[in-house]
Design a protein that fits this description.
The chain has 267 residues and is an alpha+beta fold. 18% of the residues lie in helices and 43% in strands.
Length: 267
């Protein structure tokens, strides 16, 4: 029961953030995109590795002109408005053409025999086949727990999503790091006095920018570590949480990052 309370307490973070976003004063100034005359036009990826069935959205920045997308082999990979879908093993070149100038991305499609596709609501991602759904009695359509069958605090991962209605590109469009921590202090730490922030970081996943926060707390004389990944894909706020005693298992950390890299919205 203590474990369930901890997992549910962390899981409420997404709800707090989502309901705070429209009215909060912690965000930076509104972002206005202005296309400079000398702005460099480039693709967000020039090389891309996908597994069969996986999708990735290519973006051409630095231009507001019409973009024409094409693929060298539609049996290997298709593309529609920048969204690349891996069809079968092989290689293909995706081309974005603007004002008769071409920008290319070399795509390699590999077979994925080690992963399973997980669907949670309108979202899907990949987990190692060794992970199974773990029933804690608090699951919802948008909240699921997964584990390798060991202690959930050693190898468990929670995935939570909430549809916010926000139309932003990624997490950094609405949150500054300082504003995020101030919101956390007010909304989370005051309600959970034994929870303390031990570190933060950001990185760029295939699904977008991810903000990582590490928290430590004590229970029954033992110290636990909880790591929270937050990102936005389309208008979904995603929270991925994993746990550990003293030091979090590196394998679980890699699994969480792979969720971010394979996360996609199902049309």
């Amino acid at each position: 029961m203590k474990i369930l309370k901890k997992l549910c307490a962390i899981g409420t973070l997404s709800v707090v953030l989502a309901t705070s976003i429209p009215a909060t004063t912690y965000f930076g100034e509104n972002i206005t995109t202005v296309e400079a005359a000398t702005q460099t036009i480039k693709l967000n990826k020039t090389k891309l590795s996908l597994t069969v069935g996986e999708k990735f959205t290519l973006k051409l920045s630095g231009t507001k002109s019409k973009i024409t997308w094409s693929t060298s082999d539609k049996t290997i990979a298709t593309v529609s408005e920048g969204k690349v879908t891996a069809k079968k093993v092989g290689k293909a070149t995706i081309t974005a053409t603007v004002n008769k100038k071409k920008y290319t991305c070399e795509v390699t499609i590999k077979k994925d025999s080690e992963s399973q596709k997980i669907t949670v609501g309108n979202l899907s991602f990949k987990l190692p086949k060794s992970y199974k759904e773990y029933n804690l009695g608090a699951e919802q359509d948008t909240l699921k727990y997964f584990t390798t069958g060991k202690d959930v605090l050693e190898s468990g991962i929670a995935f939570y999503s909430i549809e916010t209605g926000l139309k932003v590109k990624d997490f950094t469009d609405i949150f500054s790091e300082d504003g995020f921590q101030e919101l956390m202090n007010e909304m989370v730490f005051e309600k959970t006095p034994n929870l303390s922030l031990s570190g933060t970081d950001q990185y760029k996943s295939k699904a977008g920018n991810v903000m990582i926060s590490e928290y430590s707390y004590e229970e029954d004389g033992e110290e636990y570590l909880t790591v929270v990944y937050l990102l936005i894909i389309d208008n979904y706020l995603i929270e991925i949480v994993y746990y550990g005693k003293d030091n979090v298992n590196k394998e679980v950390s890699n699994v969480a990052k792979n969720i971010c890299d394979t996360l996609q919205v199902n049309n």
